[in-house]
Design goal:
Blueprint (H helix, E strand, L loop, with lengths): L6 H4 L8 H8 L26 H14 L11 H13 L4 E6 L7 E6 L18
Antiparallel strand pairs: 1-2
Helix pairs in contact: 3-4
């Protein structure tokens, strides 16, 4: 799924009115750049839109609790992950949490907090105002 033939679904391209951009907006596979997720307005929700870092960190911690990593694998403890994420979000960096939830590596979870306005995609408007 992540080979070069699917790149048109993982990036909107330069022309946001192109067929590639339309395919990207409709796709559900991960974007190459996190800031491009802001174009996927159908995948946004007001309850996942915050104006403060604590709200975003709460959602990350809640999602982590619902879908924890496999305990037999070695990952950064949640407290350290939250501290690191807070520092990054406060500096305007997106947060991507990605880990395996099973020993066989057949279940992977990825969830993302994207800063908006985005410092690298300055012409991309925020999809929703925060609640």
């Amino acid at each position: 799924m992540f080979d070069r033939k699917h790149d048109h679904e993982r990036s909107p391209g330069r022309d946001l009115s192109s067929a590639q951009a339309v395919a990207f907006v409709q796709a559900t596979i991960p974007s190459i750049e996190t800031g491009h997720y802001l174009l996927r307005r159908s995948q946004t929700a007001r309850e996942r839109t915050w104006s403060d870092v604590d709200g975003a960190l709460g959602w990350l911690a809640e999602t982590y609790a619902k879908h924890p990593p496999d305990r037999t694998l070695s990952y950064l403890p949640q407290e350290a992950r939250l501290h690191h994420t807070r520092t990054g979000l406060m500096a305007g960096s997106d947060a991507v949490w990605h880990y395996t939830t099973s020993v066989g590596a057949d279940r992977v979870i990825v969830y993302v907090v994207i800063c908006c306005p985005h410092r690298h995609h300055t012409r991309t408007p925020c999809p929703l105002p925060p609640h």
